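ok trying this again, last paste got cut off
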Amino acid sequence: MAVRTKTVYEKAGPGDGRRVLVMRFWPRGVRKESVNGWEKELGTPADLIKDWKAGRVTWQEFSRRYRTAVASQKERIAQLTAAATEGTVTLLCSCRDEGRCHRSILKRLIEAAQRGTRKGRAVRRTGGGR
């Protein structure tokens, strides 16, 4: 199905599906009822956020370091991938600029995993089941 992204401060919409907060710390002013799940382990590590906000890393370096940080979270990413295969999943974070937010990187990781899953299924179906 689909993976979407929004800021956690945007109101839930009918197309959001499962709303998952992907931040290490709970954002101020956000009610627990406004999300369906919280995957804090998929948030950006605190040291990386500090480096990014201080301008010590480029977006390319941020992206590389974030991917390295979440490499150990394969099971959580697989769960989100499975949920996104069944319906829409909306990744939530407090960052206003989606293009410079870890949720856009996470979205691409999930979409890549979805493509890999679909390819694997296609291979099994056509791979000699006589």
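PB: full thing came through this time. The beta strands are 3-7, 18-21, 37-38, 89-93.
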